[in-house]
Amino acid sequence: MDSTHVFTLSQVYEGLLLKMGEKGNDGGQFFTPREVIRAMVRTVAPAVGETVYDPACGTGGFLAQSYEFMRDRLGSSSTADQIETLKHRTFYGREKENLIYPIGLANLILHGIDQPNLWHGNTLTGQEIYGGLFEGAPALHDVALMNPPFGGKEGQEARTRFAYKTGATQVLFLQHVIDSLKPGGRCGMVIDEGVLFRTNETAFVQTKRKLLDDCDLWCILSLPPGVFVAAGAGVKTNLLFFTRGGPTERVWYYDLSEIKVGKKTPLTIDRFDEFFQLLPSRGDSDRSWTVTRSEIEANDYDLKAVNPHAKRDEDARTPEQLLDIIEDQGRVVAEAVGKLRELIRLP
Prior knowledge:
Blueprint: H1 9-23, E1 25-26, E2 29-30, H2 34-44, E3 52-54, H3 61-74, H4 80-88, E4 91-95, H5 100-111, E5 117-121, E6 128-130, E7 141-146, H6 156-159, H7 169-179, E8 181-192, H8 193-197, H9 202-214, E9 215-222, E10 237-244, E11 250-255, H10 273-278, E12 288-292, H11 293-298, H12 319-345
Parallel strand pairs: 3-4, 3-7, 4-5, 7-8, 9-11
Antiparallel strand pairs: 1-2, 5-6, 8-10, 9-10, 11-12
């Protein structure tokens, strides 16, 4: 056989992920750019001996990158017990999509995680499809890293399981991840900007109050518009970083909004260089500032803060970015119109 037609399992897997990336999303899921994942993992800095949890793990990107980060930090000084812990008793995830679940398993195994502890089912309702690999999983975790589905809507079965009732998937996942952390546990989470500024729905305000009461929300990083355009979403996103065991006294903001990002100009890890330099002291710069808890409360728990140092038009975007966003929104509208037409034709 011609060797040019022989493919390894890894190559087949990478090809499948590429096709999924072209599709963009599956069932409301938008796959997180790898550089964003790497920045989040580095910020939260999981250590060997800690468990890492992703309750909406998709293809397992956060868990795989956490493994690489922890393995690299061990270096040549690692012991057999540390490697055993890392490969078998460290990474835990949940995923409900039938197609995505086995891909997540394959991804983690290919990255070197011998025992991927992945639960198959709906995290928010508790409905299990397969839980065999999750037996013995801890109830609470040291680290959580996740990107919940954007704009999803949950039914009554999910809402009844949470203190603050809403159909908004991302708000329910925020409640879930807070409750899944050990005291002192750390979380890095992607959240759409609407969750930050919405104060017209009680559950949104209550959940943000819970976040500030139960956790130290120590950083909100505003990503540029267009970060998720290549994955099929034009929504503006932020990164939340918090530690369970609050309350929050102040929030440090870092703003990357002015960076121009599109399909041909993705966000690269070097864009986070100043963020990592300032992170230990959470110092002020042209892109960073601090907001107190009292200011947030006075603003009815609106967590979206405008950069006080900014001297730019907030709507200034390149033509390419605007076209990407319009194209994305056009697809959403077209799908909605198609569903309405189907409903109208129903007897």
